[in-house]
Each structure stands twice: as C-alpha cells, then as structure tokens.
Specification:
Length: 149
C-alpha cells in the first residue's frame, strides 16, 4: 500500500510540474504576442521595426520611405529611398518613389535623374508608372534647360 501512495504522490508532483511549466510558457507567449502587437500598431512602427531588424534589405527601406511620404515627412522618405537604391540598384520602385518625393520638395535636378532611370528600366508590369515617369522626366528636363529669369 505504501508503494501506491508513493506512485500516486509522484504522479501528482509530475502533473503539478507540468501545470507550472505550461503557465510560465503561456505567460511568456502572451507577453511576446503583446509586444509584437505594439510593433504592428501602425505601418510606420511595423516598417521601423523591420528596418531595425533587417537594415541591409532594400525593400524595408523603400516601404519605410512610403510610410514617411504618407505622413508628409518628405526628407525622411528621401533618406529611406536613397538607402533602398544604394542597397539594390534593381529596386526600380525605389527609383520612382525617390523621383516623386524629390519633385514634391522641389529638388527637380535630382528628381529628373531618378525618373529617367525608372523610365528606361521599368518592366511592362509597371506600364502606368513608366508612362508617368517618362512624362515627368521629359517635363523636368525641359524645365531644367529653360533659361532663368
């Protein structure tokens, strides 16, 4: 009868240990989920987090630039687009976005160059943006060649 009591007691200890481990695991995962939800609260915080975790990826800098552009933080957007282009010369979206943002703040001599790169290298899937970039590049080129007042 003693052996039954010892076995029963060991089983009770084993179950209690499992409950404690599960409770700790649940608390840890809940905390991690809460912290992740804070990051996902806004697109800006999401892409800032992604950029901090993957600073060598062009796409995250381009997307962080897009967030800054939407918030009318033009010079922060320009900085992010320039990083995106520097990290990946093939990221044509960053060229287009950089051209548009530079034009928005009046830096047309640089905007023209980025529109021109996009215009000459965008694939057919970007037909609408390519047409727009080519038109903007041509208009800015004419404006740059125009004699001053």
């Amino acid at each position: 009868m003693n052996s039954v009591d010892i076995t029963g007691h060991a089983r009770g200890k084993n179950i209690m240990c499992r409950i404690v481990v599960m409770a700790v695991l649940l608390l840890f995962l809940s905390s991690a989920a809460y912290q992740r939800n804070v990051v996902w609260h806004t697109l800006l915080s999401l892409w800032e987090d992604a950029t901090a975790k993957s600073p060598r990826k062009s796409r995250v800098h381009n997307n962080l630039g897009n967030c800054n552009l939407l918030l009318e933080r033009y010079f922060k957007a320009i900085d992010e687009y320039k990083i995106a282009v520097a990290l990946d010369k093939g990221n044509i979206e960053a060229y287009y976005n950089l051209g548009a943002c530079l034009e928005k703040v009046g830096i047309i001599n640089q905007a023209w160059q980025y529109y021109d790169v996009f215009c000459s290298s965008a694939p057919p899937s970007y037909a609408e943006q390519k047409k727009s970039a080519c038109e903007r590049a041509a208009a800015l080129s004419r404006e740059l060649k125009r004699p001053g007042p």
